[in-house]
Design goal:
With 361 residues, the protein is an alpha/beta fold. Helix content is 33%, strand content 19%. The protein folds into 2 domains: 76 residues, GMP Synthetase, Chain A, domain 3 (2-Layer Sandwich); 250 residues, 3-Layer(aba) Sandwich (Rossmann fold). It contains 11 helices and 15 strands. The strands form 4 sheets. It has an 8-stranded mixed sheet with strand order 8-9-7-10-6-11-12-15, sandwiched between helices. The chain has a 3-stranded mixed sheet with strand order 3-4-5, covered by helices on one side. A two-stranded antiparallel ribbon has the order 1-2. The radius of gyration is 22 Å and the shape is globular.
Length: 361
């Protein structure tokens, strides 16, 4: 019989702190299935998201503290993740199988919001999470081209709902699937809100860890409908460094605050240009404006994304850079930002924040 006891293992693991949640991994319930046999210790470390940016650090710290217990001869850790659902009030849930809704917004058009949303969603899916993506830009849907998905969705025989397309491991839905690419949408505001609601309610999204919603630019009907109908876990705001873009970011921040939607952070897109020939860095649209805006507003700054022809060309070709260049520096940036977003979502859930029903008058 081994002299090592489970209580010793758990006591040692209480030394390992989650840096975002500021609690030890035992009290957070991360440690499961502790087994001890002849001095060999094994257990499962279940994190809050497969995209956890501290995954390797937490694993190494856990190995170190358990190995230090007298009598331990071997340590095996199985790493898993279980994404928690956002808390919300109300009896009616429009998306019962979706744990978290992450909206990606911008104050104005042309800042690369959709490209950013697509690459972040793919990064979350590649981490092992179940991900869906909704194109809520009714007037200018871009996901069909950016994900190279065409064809009208089919209807589920069992549920009578539209089946989302599948692209790069994600479930995808867009108004662009129901219309010709060059056909204009000539609708008044209330119809846009109804269309967004239909894309949420009448699509069989199934079970998802994250539903990433690409919002249209500005503060119009689509974001307001989403805020009214769905308990949004949080919103990411994308901007360029220019003052003209940042002035619109402030409007977006104020709108989301007004409807009690948490802001997960701000991203500065097209932050700088690195010449592929000589490596010279040019800050074409200025630099650091979004970081300063985030600091001034007391919000998280998620990162700088460079202006890069490979990102643009791959988006236009329907093969995002995370697919075509998985080892590129640009891909690494998207993955780092996605990990930060996942950490922000988990932190808010453990903080016990409730996401209220929104009433916009």
């Amino acid at each position: 019989m081994s002299s090592v006891q489970e209580q010793q293992v758990l006591a040692a693991l209480q030394q390992v702190m989650d840096p975002d949640l500021h609690r030890n991994i035992v009290s957070l319930g991360f440690v499961k299935e502790v087994r001890i046999q002849e001095g060999a210790v094994s257990f499962t470390l279940e994190l809050t998201t497969p995209a956890c940016p501290m995954k390797e650090k937490l694993k190494q710290q856990s190995l170190d503290v358990v190995r230090a217990i007298p009598g331990v001869t071997d340590v095996q850790i199985r790493m898993t993740a279980q994404v928690r659902a956002a808390q919300h009030k109300g009896e009616v849930v429009l998306l019962p199988g979706v744990k978290n809704v992450i909206a990606v917004a911008s104050g104005k058009g042309g800042v690369g919001k959709s490209t950013t949303a697509v690459n972040l969603a793919i990064a979350l899916a590649q981490s092992g999470a179940s991900v869906g993506m909704l194109d809520a830009d009714i007037y200018g849907p871009s996901l069909p081209r950016m994900l190279n998905v065409t064809g009208r969705p089919t209807q589920s025989a069992q549920k009578g709902k539209a089946e989302p397309a599948v692209a790069y491991g994600m479930k995808v839905m867009s108004m662009g699937f129901f219309m010709e690419e060059d056909a204009p949408v000539v609708w008044r505001g209330p119809m846009v809100g109804m269309a967004v609601e239909q894309l949420l309610r009448d699509v069989d999204w199934g079970e998802l860890d994250y539903l990433v919603v690409d919002l249209p630019p500005g503060t119009g009907d689509a974001p307001l409908t989403l805020a009214q109908k769905v308990p949004i876990t949080g919103v990411i705001i994308v901007s360029t460094p220019q003052d003209v873009a940042l002035s619109d970011v402030k409007k977006g921040i104020n709108m989301f605050k007004k409807v009690d939607v948490p802001i997960l952070g701000i991203i500065e897109n097209m932050s700088y240009f690195l010449c592929p020939g000589c490596g010279h860095r040019s800050e074409i649209f200025s630099h650091g404006g979004a970081l300063r805006e985030a600091e001034a507003a007391g919000m998280v700054f998620l990162g700088h994304i460079p202006l890069d022809t490979a990102i643009c060309e791959n988006a236009d070709a329907g093969t995002p850079i995370l697919i075509t260049q998985p080892d590129s520096p640009q891909t690494a940036i998207y993955r780092e930002i996605a990990a930060q977003v996942a950490a922000q979502v988990a932190t808010r859930q453990f903080a016990g924040q409730k996401f209220p029903n929104i009433v916009v008058e």
